[in-house]
Amino acid sequence: MTTPISLRVLLIDPDDDKGLVPALVDSQWGSQRQSLLVDTARSAPEALRKLGEQQYVAVIAVHRLPDLDAVNLLTRAGETTPEALRLLLCRNPDSSLDRPEAEAFFRIIGPAVDGRNLASFVSEGLKLHRLAREQKELLKKISLEYERLRKREKLLDTVVRERSKELETAYLKLKAANRQALLGLAEAIEAKDPYTKGHCGRVAAYAMALARECSYPEGELEALEFAAFLHDIGKIGIRDAVLLKPGPLDEEEWKHMKIHPEVGYEIASKIDMLKPTMAAIRNHHERWDGKGYPDGLAAEEIPLSARVVCLADAFDAMATDRPYKRGLTLEECHGQLRKNRSVQFDPELADLFLERRIGELFIY
C-alpha cells in the first residue's frame, strides 16, 4: 500500500475534453495554499484499482453513458474511501441519475461543468469536509469528557466549573469555524458574478432586520442568517454565459437560470449544518400569489424563512445597479413593494419593511 497523501484527488473522465485536470492542479487549497495532486482514470476498472492503492480526499467522476456509470462507480468508491468528498459531473442529465444511491454524493448537472466551477466547488467542499471531520472529533472528545465529569461526582465545584468553561470555549470555536466555512461558500457564489459583490451580505442584513421586526423565533435566527447568505448557492451550477449576460435572458436562458434554487437545495441537503437552510434556499423565489418557482407554493404554504429571504433578495436586486439596469431610488423601491404586496410578497412582511424603513440600512 502506497503512503497516503492528504491532498490527492482522483478524477475519472473517459474523455477529459474540458480541461478539468489543469484547473484542479492550479487551484490552491488550505491555509498553506497547497496545490492538489490529481490522479486520473478513464474507466471504472482503472479507477477502482487506484482507489485500492491510494487514499484520496476527493473522488470526481464524469457521468457519460455508456462509457462510464458514475453513479455506480461513486457508490463503490464510498465503500473504499468513505471519508472522501464524492462529486458527480454530468453535462447532459438523463433518467439514469434518478436512483436512490445517487443521493449519497454531490452532483453538478448541466453545461456549467467547467474547470473553474469545479475547482471552486472542490476547494469549498474540502473545507467543509475538513470541518465536518474536526466537528466529529471534537464532539467525540466533548462527549467523553462530559461522561467522565458526570461520573466523577466527588469533584470539587471549582474543577467542574473550569472544565465546563473549557468545553464552552471549544464549542464556540467550532461554531465560529462553521460560520467561517459558510461565509466562504457565499464568497464563492459572488466570485462568479462581480456585479453582485456584497449582495449576499446585504440580503442577510435586510433579512435579519426584518426577522427581528416580525418576532421571528429567536432560536432560528442563526439558521435564517445562513440561509440568506447562501440563498443563491445554486448559481454555482449556472452557465457563465447566462449568469453574466449583460441584458435580458431569452426563454431557454431563463429556464436554465430557474434551476438554481433546486441545485442549491440539493447542495444544502448533503451537509448537516446547512439542512436548516434548505427551505429558504429552495423557495425564496416563490410568490404570495402562487406564480413563483420551483414548487408554485402560495401564501402561508411558503415557509416563513423563504418569505423573509424573498423580500430581502428582491429589495436588494431593485436597489442596486446591474449591467442591464440602474438601481431604483428608495421611493421607487418602496413603490414596488406596495404594488407587489399580496402579489409577490407576504403583505405583513412588506408592510413591516416599509414602516420600519429597513431598506435604508445599507444602500441609501
In words, what does this structure look like?
- It contains 14 helices and seven strands.
- The protein has 364 residues and is of the alpha/beta class.
- It has three domains: 8-112, 3-Layer(aba) Sandwich (Rossmann fold); 121-182; 192-360, Hypothetical protein af1432, CATH 1.10.3210.
- Strands 4-1-5-6-7 form a five-stranded parallel sheet, with helices on both faces. A two-stranded antiparallel ribbon has the order 2-3.
- Helix 3 links the parallel strand 5 and strand 6 (85-90).
- Helix 4 (115-151) packs antiparallel against helix 5 (157-191).
- It is globular.
Question: Outline of this structure?
Answer:
With 364 residues, this protein is α/β, with parallel strands linked by helices. Helices cover 51% and strands 8% of the residues.
